[in-house]
Amino acid sequence: MKRREELTLIERLYLFEVIKGVAQTSGDLIKHFLLYIGQVVGLNKTKKPWATYEYPDEARPYAERCRGRHRLTLNPEGSVRCTACFLCATACPAKYISIDATEHENSEIEKFPHRYEIDTLLCIYCGYCVEACPVDAIRMDTGIHPEIYPPDPRAFIEDKETLMMRSRVLEDQGPEALFKAHMNKLKAIETKPFEGEY
Ligand code: SF4
Ligand code: SF4
User: Fold this and answer.
1) For ligand 2, what atom is nearest to the CA of residue 138?
2) Residue spans per domain, the chain
3) What fold characterizes domain 71-191?
4) pTM for this one?
5) Which candidate in 14, 50, 102, 125 could, as Cys together with 114 as Cys, close a disulfide (CB 3.0–4.6 Å)?
6) d(Cα 193, Cα 150) in Å, to the nearest integer?
7) Is the CB–ligand 2 distance for residue 80 below 6 Å?
């Protein structure tokens, strides 16, 4: 890019540039105001005249490829699919997947995770755990993100039941139900009067 060193006479006078700036700002203001009026009277429903979202009443839609909170996928009969191979925990650069493996009562299954926890406060949402899993037992396709300040800090640590429950809700009620429950929870946190601690 060539840098322009010299200003023209009109630019050096500034007045013309100030008028140009005011005209641009006023034009945008009038355009968005007319769009807003159009929406109020029921016209032009598709285009929003503002770029902001009424959070937490209105949620900004996430991109489909957004890495959301984890979930542990399930076998057809509802048991956890994870085989406690530890590959996800080994691949995790934050080293915050914690697994306790135990023997399965079914002799055909070698082991399963008795305890499976992810500390989402330390997770960097890189997705390496998902890529490392050889049996598609962990996914990040929930479309929801963690609460930034849950009422109880221990809620940052997501256990096996929480991670499995997301899969159940997704299968039984669809992603909208998961997202709605998530937004309701966030809304409750956002609108709760501050009482000295979160
Ligand atoms: S997303 Fe990355 S940091 Fe988070 S648990 Fe998975 S591997 Fe670890
Ligand atoms: S989630 Fe996948 S990679 Fe991690 S322990 Fe279970 S089976 Fe292995």
Assistant:
1) 1
2) 9-40, 71-191
3) Alpha-Beta Plaits (3.30.70)
4) 0.74
5) 102
6) 14
7) no
